[in-house]
Every structure is written in C-alpha cells, then in structure tokens.
Amino acid sequence: MPLEIVRNDITKMKVDAIVNAANESLLGGGGVDGAIHRAAGAGLLAECRTLGGCQTGKAKITDGYDLPAKYVIHTVGPIYNDGKHGEKVLLESCYRESLALAKEHNCETVAFPLISSGVYGYPKDQALKVAIDVISDFLLENEMTVYIVIFDKAAYKISEKLFSDIAEYIDDNYVDEHTDYRRESMRMNALPQAAPHARRKKADVDFLEICDCKAMVAGDDLDAKLRQIDESFSQMLLRKIDEKGMTDAECYKKANIDRKLFSKIRSDIHYKPSKPTALAFAISLELSLAETEDMLRKAGFALSHSNKFDIIIEYFISKGNYNIFEINEALFAFDQSLLGA
Asked: Nearest to residue 145, comparing CAs of 64, 261, 12?
C-alpha cells in the first residue's frame, strides 16, 4: 500500500531511502540518528561533514553506505516547547522537504521515523497526525510507497480520546462469535413444532416482498436492480466510481491502493480482493454501512461484531470519517490489519 505503518528497525528497511531525524550538525547523535550512523559506517559521517549542517525544517541527502537503503535523507525536526512557536509548521516542512528530495532522486520507497517525537519532546499523537497529514497529501499527487516506522509500541500513540472512544465502541458492540448461534439454537429448540410453519410463512412473506418490489420498481429501474444482483466486485467498484463522479486515480489513491493492483481489478471482472482491500475501496467511495456490506458480499465477506477489525471500521463509518490514513492509525494502535493492499 502507498502508506503503511510498520514496526521495524529503520536501519534494516530495504527501501530506496530512509529518513534520519538528525540534529543541525548532521554529525550524529542519540536515538534514531545514532543508530543510523552506526549502521551506515564511517562513510556516512565523512559525507555529512561536507554538508555544512542543516537548518530546522530542512533536509539534505547522502548515500546510504552500509545500510540496505540507497540513500539517507537527513532532516532536522523542531524541539517542542508549547506548540505555539511554529513547531507544527517546521515539522510539516521536515516531511515535505524529505519527500521532495526523495522524488527528485527517483525514490519509489521511503521510510520515515516519527520525527521529533523522541528527545525533542513533540507529543507523539500530534507528531503522528502531522506525519499522516503531510504524507497522505503528497501521495494524492505522487506515486510512491512510504513507511512510517515505529520501533516499539511505546513509540506510537494516537490521541487518548480517540483510543478511548474506539475502545468503548468495541466494548459496546463486541460479541462472542458463538453468541448468535447459541441464541438461535435455543430459540429453535424451544419451538420445534413451529419451525416448519415458520419457514413456510417466511417463504410466503419473501415471495410477497419480491412481488411488492417488482410492483414498486418498473421498467428500466427494475432491470437495473436485477443486473446488480449478479454483478461482480470489480463491476460494482467501477459502477460506484462512475456514480460518485470520481476518476480511477482519485479512488485508488484515497483507498491507499497501489495503481498496479487497481489495474488488475479493473481488467479482471472476476478479481477477488482481500477483505482489507475491499473495505479500503468502500472507505474511498464513502459508502454507507449498508453499501459497504453490499460491496463486501460481492467479494465474499461480511462485517461481524465478533471481529474487532470490523467493529473499528464500523465505528469510523458511523462517525462519517472516511480518512483512510486516520483509520489505519487506529487499526495499528489496536494491533489490527491495515486497510489497503
């Protein structure tokens, strides 16, 4: 997927460029900066000595030397005071300048740490939001795969309110996967003689409902509805893109989906996506919960209240929040799969 949050050691990332949260001297330091210099070897420090330092909010690029990455992009994040001294503007600039350098050097994959969130004291939830906002804006206009690399759980944090709101929503909606089965079994066992009659009655109602629907929907409208019954996931996706007045690029970028995967889906009427991919497109298209369920059925899936991943997705749809990057922040915080491919 174009933007992914991962737990890893950034010095081990096999990407075109990794970003170093450096100090103004560019001569190494603690934390991520020191780890990158140690892993890259003496050659990195020697080149950095020729660069004349770097201002806060700016970025400079060097070779990667002994690192798996071809380049190291060094950027200097702001020291956090109270958030009222231009810290946010400077942090945004770090990401923009780094991405611009990566694009200039034809990088297809880039890995970022969470800049300024360590000893520089930038609140982790706010630092993460800045990173997500700037990177996602960039990816709407550019083709690149970007990783936000989190070394451990303690280095990652979404807002306390969002986390508690989602946790409460999960508590209110989460059910044991066997609860519905047990309830239905108990009901049927309690009324064994009524079941056949109930089934016949249900069948009669279903038939009448179908007749009512046909009476209500005439001509071309009925034909259109009937055609939609047998449409594939790919056909429904392309239909919804047209109905929403979106371009293909707008849709797959908002879905955090790679262009190559979208091309496969478009060209193969029988393509079966993964559940996170199907949901990513539902989010991109800003579908209602009912429409999302319909799209999932086309791919052979369904939402379930015995699945925390599904409940989190439902939470965001119910709130009308279709920002896939913010949704992925929350999914990552709850140790769930991310949306996209």
From this structure: 261
| Cβ atoms of residues 58 and 97 within 8 Å | yes
CA distances in angstroms from 62 to 90, 93, 277, listed in the order given: 21, 19, 36
Whether the predicted pLDDT of 292 surpasses 80: yes
The mean pLDDT value for 140-157 works out to: 82
Q: Is 109 helix (H, G, I), strand (E, B) or coil?
A: strand
Q: Are 296 and 275 in contact (CB under 8 A)?
A: yes
Residue 185 has pLDDT above 90, yes or no: no
Q: Per-residue pLDDT for 156 more than 50?
A: yes
Beta strands in the chain (DSSP E): 3-7, 17-22, 59-63, 71-76, 109-112, 145-150
Strand order in the sheet with 109-112: 3-7, 145-150, 109-112, 17-22, 71-76, 59-63
Contacts of 341 (CB under 8 A, 6+ apart): 1, 256, 257, 258, 261, 273, 274, 276, 277, 280
DSSP letter at 25 equals T
What does the alpha-carbon distance between residue 45 and residue 88 come to, in Å, rounded to a whole number?
A: 29
Residue from 91, 87, 135, 76 nearest 110 by CA: 135
- Give the bridge partners for 195, in sequence order: none
